[in-house]
């Protein structure tokens, strides 16, 4: 009997997939130890994304074996969903601060970024994906994108496609992205290429669904090497969810405008524009935006100027409609319903 998902049908976490391969990562411990020695550090902070927090104590133990007794290793307990989500409190109070699992979003000597490249072989799933891509005899060009965890294999992916007759379109999107061909959950500029089809190599469905919404004219094929599955990005269920939220917010009088105080997620100008045009809008500043934290606010609807994934991942869980800034413009009548787009971030903080 299959286990029923706890997420709604349109929720992007509702993938219906389970892991097929165990993943291992290189934590670059020797590099971290060298930084500790070079800086004569006595306080070291480690920040892991949510899915890897359980590995934090073992990494701390491995570091303790390599450094002196005078070095204190601290683990960040703050939520972490991306390179824009740094624990600035811990960072300011440590001599060495290490952020695992994401690539740098901005050049800084204050943070050591350890991307945690995956060890999973991408070749078998790319071979399977060829059956879903347009044949190179009919459509020679293909855009190639992936996430930070697989960037170490990007050239191998490119060569794989080129050896099979494809012309690979590739670019680095903008300054929020570190690598050519990289996509984030909030930025798909690297997929802005001439090719009519895009191959996304990576885990999960959120990134390719966001990509498909950002570039609706492109055929987006998902080659997931971790779950060992090939699918085509289908935005229909997600779009229905978002249209439903907009319709529920059309009669709203009091709006809560969320400004996220996380270092890489604040869009102050966008929040201020909404406040300037709407006398019934109220600014709410928060570091972590959750349904429970907003439950006591007497608002008819909310508009989130922080991370787009707050709206798309958790939207159905909020007690009142939670919209992106673009969706807000539709709900208040400034834009037509068919102008709905995926909310993205561009530029660094």
Describe the structure.
The protein is of the alpha/beta class and 349 residues long. The protein is 26% helix and 17% strand. The strands form 3 sheets. The chain has a 5-stranded mixed β-sheet, with helices on both faces. A 4-stranded parallel β-sheet has the order 2-1-3-4, covered by helices on one side. Helix 5 links the parallel strand 5 and strand 6. Helix 7 packs across helix 11. The longest helix is centred in the C-terminal third of the chain and has 14 residues. It starts with 28 loop residues before the first helix and ends in an 18-residue tail after the last helix.
Low-confidence stretches: 1-22
Net shape? flat
What count of helical segments does DSSP give?
Answer: 11
Q: Determine the structural class based on helices, strands and strand pairing.
A: alpha/beta
On the 0 to 100 scale, the average pLDDT is 87
What is the rounded Rg?
A: 21 Å
**Percent strand:** 15-25%
Task: Write the H/E string, N to C.
Answer: HEHEHEEHEHEEHEEHEHEHEHEH
Strand order, sheet with most strands: 6-5-7-8-9
Helix content: 25-40%
Distance between the termini: 47 Å
Task: Give a short overview.
Helix content is 26%, strand content 17%.
Which structural traits does this protein have?
5-stranded mixed beta sheet; 349 residues; alpha/beta
Write the layout of secondary structure elements.
Layout: H1 29-38, E1 43-47, H2 56-64, E2 72-75, H3 88-92, E3 96-100, E4 112-114, H4 123-129, E5 141-146, H5 154-163, E6 167-169, E7 197-201, H6 206-214, E8 219-224, E9 229-232, H7 236-249, E10 255-260, H8 268-277, E11 281-286, H9 291-294, E12 301-304, H10 308-314, E13 322-323, H11 325-331
Parallel strand pairs: 1-2, 1-3, 3-4, 5-6, 5-7, 7-8, 10-11, 10-12, 12-13
Antiparallel strand pairs: 8-9
Helix pairs in contact: 7-11
């Amino acid at each position: 009997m299959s286990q029923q998902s706890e997420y709604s049908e349109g929720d992007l976490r509702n993938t219906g997939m389970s892991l097929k391969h165990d993943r291992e990562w290189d934590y670059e411990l020797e590099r971290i130890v060298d930084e500790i020695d070079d800086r004569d550090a006595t306080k070291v902070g480690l920040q892991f994304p949510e899915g890897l927090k359980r590995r934090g104590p073992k990494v701390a133990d491995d570091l303790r074996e390599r450094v002196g007794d005078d070095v204190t290793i601290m683990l960040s307990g703050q939520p972490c969903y991306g390179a824009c989500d740094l624990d600035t409190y811990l960072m300011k109070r440590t001599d060495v601060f290490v952020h695992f699992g994401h690539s740098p979003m901005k050049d800084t000597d204050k943070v050591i970024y350890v991307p945690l490249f995956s060890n999973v072989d991408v070749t078998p799933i790319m071979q399977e994906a060829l059956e879903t891509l347009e044949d190179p005899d009919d459509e020679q060009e293909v855009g190639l994108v992936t996430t930070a965890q697989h960037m170490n294999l990007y050239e191998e992916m490119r060569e794989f496609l080129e050896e099979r007759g494809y012309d690979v379109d590739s670019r680095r999107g903008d300054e929020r992205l570190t690598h050519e061909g990289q996509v984030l959950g909030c930025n798909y500029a690297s997929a802005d290429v001439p090719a009519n089809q895009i191959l996304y190599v990576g885990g999960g469905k959120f990134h390719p669904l966001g990509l498909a919404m950002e570039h609706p004219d492109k055929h987006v094929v998902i080659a997931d090497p971790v779950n060992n599955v090939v699918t085509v990005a289908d935005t229909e269920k997600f779009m229905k969810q978002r249209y439903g939220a907009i319709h529920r917010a059309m009669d709203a009088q009091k709006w809560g405008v969320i400004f996220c105080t996380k270092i890489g997620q604040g869009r102050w100008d966008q929040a201020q524009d909404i406040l300037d045009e709407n006398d019934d809008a109220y600014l709410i500043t928060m570091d972590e935006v959750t349904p429970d934290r907003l439950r006591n606010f007497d608002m008819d609807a909310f508009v989130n100027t922080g991370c787009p994934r707050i709206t798309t991942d958790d939207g159905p869980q909020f007690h009142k409609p939670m919209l992106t800034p673009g969706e807000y413009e539709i709900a208040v009548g400034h834009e037509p319903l068919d102008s709905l787009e995926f909310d993205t971030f561009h530029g660094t903080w």
